[in-house]
Amino acid sequence: MKPKKQGFCCAPPTGKSLLDLALEGQHAYSHWRTVSRRLPYIDSIFKNGLRCAVDKYMGYRLEELGPGMFVNKVCYKYREGVKGSISSSFKTKRSWQEIKVEALQRRLNNNIKPFPITASDGLPESICRSCEKNVSS
Which ranges of 39-123 would DSSP assign to H, the alpha helix? Predict the structure, then answer.
């Protein structure tokens, strides 16, 4: 696979959550999550029947269950622009919209405050140059 460009992944700025950014129409990190089984309610990061936007759902749930950390390292390469790709489908976009609304309602109804996601260098705003304009405070 030939790299196309630097990604947009980065930690949310201090005081913002992944959901906050999503509700503003912005992406933050989308890298796959690695979590400890010691996290309370770990099984709740999976939603039965969810076939697209799974990473977004997991991210919102994880920030509700415990603190997170963003590590600015490419761990896999994401394919985009593939004809028929699920990432560009209407169904995926609609699913992400539904997941955002569900997460917001869950947080409001249960008074859930998201845990912070810190960057491995402790400076979320300086993690990646390509997203500074997208997630600066």
Answer: 54-65, 90-109
